[in-house]
Amino acid sequence: MIKEIQLRITLKEEEQPDILVLKSAIKLAIDRKDITGVKILRKSIDARKPKIIFNYKVAVYIKEPVPETSKYKFDYKDVSKAKPIHIIGFGPAGMYAALRCIELGFKPIVLERGKNVRDRRRDLKAINQDHFVNEDSNYCFGEGGAGTYSDGKLYTRSLKRGDVRRIFENLVYHGSTNQILVDAHPHIGTNKLPKVVQNIRETILKYGGEIHFETRVTDFIIKNNKIRALQLKNDEELTVEKVILATGHSARDIFYLLNKKRIAIEAKSFAMGVRVEHPQHIIDSIQYHCSSDRHELLPAASYGLVEQVRDRGVYSFCMCPGGFIVPAATANGEVVVNGMSPSKRNNLYANSGIVVEINADSDLPKYEQFGALKGLEYQKNLERLAFTSGGRTQVAPAQRLTDFVKGKLSNTLNDTSYQPGLKSAPLHSLLPKFIGGRLRKGFEAFGRKMKGYYTEEANIVGVESRTSSPISIPRNEQLQHPQISNLFPCGEGGGYAGGIVSAAMDGERCAEAATNNL
Ligand code: FAD
């Protein structure tokens, strides 16, 4: 017999090795010897009160063996001689489109502008140390896309859009830990992601797919409303049948290309702001109600904050406990910050994007001349502003949180995890009033919600501008572009995803659509 039950375990109890069996036996009023195994289905931490509780949902196996297998099978077959599907971009959307093509019996041919995970590392070092951005290989471009050297949080609000569990199981199949299957807030970590991405590449190659790195697509050759060929950066032309476009939200050249060729794109609402960085112990002490270091069984604490300021939401985005702020620009002449953390989340800082919603229809009147590209141009201007005010390198403009809210330049800044370094700048006056004013009110409100959050020990760092795509690429019910029948806009760049898991799910959907009726 199998019984699913909820268990509440205190911090002290959590230290006991057999606690789940013991508590299950008590709760079910059975002899513990009759329990053959306890499988954790879900685990979360309730830290709302000083007495911290681990909430478990478990399946208790009574007098029967615990099954080993998962209901998910990944049935990859040899597709080396099968019909090809071309996929542009090898981020989560492109990777999962390729894997799904193989399951469906089609040969994915992936074209990726960046380098493989290992060679990409050198370019990340160059951004951090030499302030040089390789425009094809950086924190957003390269094998695994923006998802490789990311934080690897796997939360998604897109539960209705696909089978989240299938993606998690596939990540485990490719080397991620089982822990992501049970944690309420699953996280892989930037140190573990490259191996998972490399394993995905190896599966694709093993079953006959192709992946071409350092192969940027520069043009579409179109005839009779169909892409006949892709032009590559070396001027080679590649004849194609179906194209999945999974180039992400930072591939501005692709948006410009579509616009130039009059292939419809649309301005979309998005969000921008800054990244705030606190010493992790401050966030721990607020969230875990402790005055000294957090208990060793507790992970670095996180938070999620939202406040309505006048007519717009101000909210935390991509919060990285025990993490680093990273330079996520994709071109020289711009500064963009983002965050990531290792699997153990054991760095000394907690960082989070704090952003303001920008409504593409009403908030950008001065940018109307750019049509569908208005949000992108606004975003670009802010990134250039960050570049010049940081001193024209990857050094980012920053201010103490309290000085930003009070509207005064910081004489000194706090230490930071951001490797290229920070420069004190008056972000309160540099940021557009629309964003800066709302952020200031938002931070004050966050200080009231989390006592100790509003502190001079925190820095804000500019700018957090790539939260989501400022552009969407339309598609019909068959996921085809309405004008170009063999083009399948996919993932975050199309406006169909907002993170690793939703991009992966969209990749699978596009593979299904592109292979339909072939
Ligand atoms: P991308 O990952 O952007 O991939 C697009 C790919 O297309 C890139 O590899 C690019 O090189 C390639 N490409 C672009 N143009 C061309 C071209 N012309 N020719 C050939 N190839 C091209 N999300 C989460 O869910 N959790 C997190 O914790 C998280 N942390 C993040 C931390 C950082 C630092 C960053 C930068 C992002 C983070 N994200 C996180 C966001 C997440 O990475 C993206 O949502 C996700 O990667 C989007 O997937 P995608 O496949 O749609 O696009």
Automatic annotation (TrEMBL):
InterPro entries: FAD-binding_protein (IPR028348), FAD-depend_C (IPR049516), FAD/NAD-bd_sf (IPR036188), FAD/NAD-binding_dom (IPR023753). Residues 269-467 form the FAD-dependent protein C-terminal domain. Gene3D superfamilies: 3.30.70.2700, FAD/NAD(P)-binding domain. Residues 85-253 form the FAD/NAD(P)-binding domain. It holds the Pfam family FAD-depend_C. This is FAD-binding protein. It comes from Algibacter aquimarinus.
